[in-house]
């Protein structure tokens, strides 16, 4: 009887641990000015982290409140690390705190299938990029040279927005400020990235580009995807001048 009870308790504890760990398995992302672009990939028995320092790997285990990392291999002298963690009710947002001499709060991470899926969730837009076989120019990551305009759908409604506003009403002022705050030697190279859904009509795209051309930046690159460049593993844009 005691042996049977022990087996049942052990099985229950193992099952609970497995449930907690299963919720973590997958890709989690964050992006902000302080940390840059960060990706946590929880596999069944290992964790891979990509950040601005590079790549690190570790072995991980979790209980209901903590993640324990061991055998860390990366840009750190630490070989072990513990996080306090909390997953929201949707199972899509992860809150992490590093346990050191004091708790270090990390920005909230979002669960997503790929880099591009995270990009869409971050914007709260669906943008299905147009596919082309034409030769495209490498235009790189969003950076200090690019002002981004996004055109996509939310609940079947067309939304056109920037990184600063939910529409284009203040586009001219935003671009002026962007240009004024750019270094003098960079100003001739400033450009728009137009990241727009393939279903948006030509007339609608032309109207958006017309508003963009009324600003202090004239060069517009529209972002496209190709079969080799589908942005699942990177947001290194390719596009052409329009």
From TrEMBL:
State the taxonomy lineage: Bacteria, Pseudomonadati, Bacteroidota, Flavobacteriia, Flavobacteriales
- Would you tell me the protein name for this molecule? Lipoprotein
Q: What organism does this protein naturally occur in?
A: Salinimicrobium gaetbulicola
